[in-house]
């Protein structure tokens, strides 16, 4: 049996952290290894505990979750995937989080099953965005920025090598928030083959996960 997924909970509300801990610790394959109430504590705890996944709030005292995400992702000794978990469904939070390096975005009114699923997906090395969030990402990055509009992710994308036709097809379906199983069914290929294509796409884009791959591809006009 593999080791359980190690999770760090970051939120300034102790009651919410307790609720998340109860949900996650009830799963045999997940264990909460620590908690933090501020962004600064989150950075320190991530460095000390080396979690696999961080559930990160946005609005906190001392340092917000966006800056904490940026610092954790920048630490070469920490290899944690970060899910932003917030009450506020705001585009500025979403795109700032993606720019900072978050791999997931979840609202606090999501179901316990969604939280558990997000932890497992991120621990597996995949990104996780709700379908409605994905649509906003596609709309934002697929269109040319207006003059003066900020571009959270650089439009300059240099591929390690060109995509094959099949990789381009897989990337387009990734941009529709399809899972590997859904992509396999759409293209009539095996799921293992899809995983191989996804891995090659990430390598060619220099992306850490599916979310960043889609964002980079859309901004660079590659999907």
TrEMBL record:
Positions of the Response regulatory domain? 6-123
Q: What biological processes does GO assign it?
A: phosphorelay signal transduction system; regulation of DNA-templated transcription
Q: Key word Transcription present in the record?
A: yes
Enumerate the spans annotated as HTH luxR-type domain: 156-221
**What GO terms are given for molecular function?**
DNA binding
Q: Which domain of life is it from?
A: Bacteria
Q: Which residues carry this modification: 4-aspartylphosphate?
A: 57
Q: What does the UniProt keyword field contain?
A: DNA-binding, Phosphoprotein, Transcription, Transcription regulation
Query: PROSITE patterns under this entry?
Result: HTH_LUXR_2, RESPONSE_REGULATORY
Pfam families to which the protein is assigned, alphabetical: GerE (PF00196), Response_reg (PF00072)
Q: Which PANTHER family match?
A: TRANSCRIPTIONAL REGULATORY PROTEIN NARL-RELATED, TWO-COMPONENT RESPONSE REGULATOR
Question: How is this protein named in the record?
Answer: Response regulator transcription factor
Q: What are the top taxonomic ranks of the organism?
A: Bacteria, Bacillati, Actinomycetota, Actinomycetes, Micrococcales
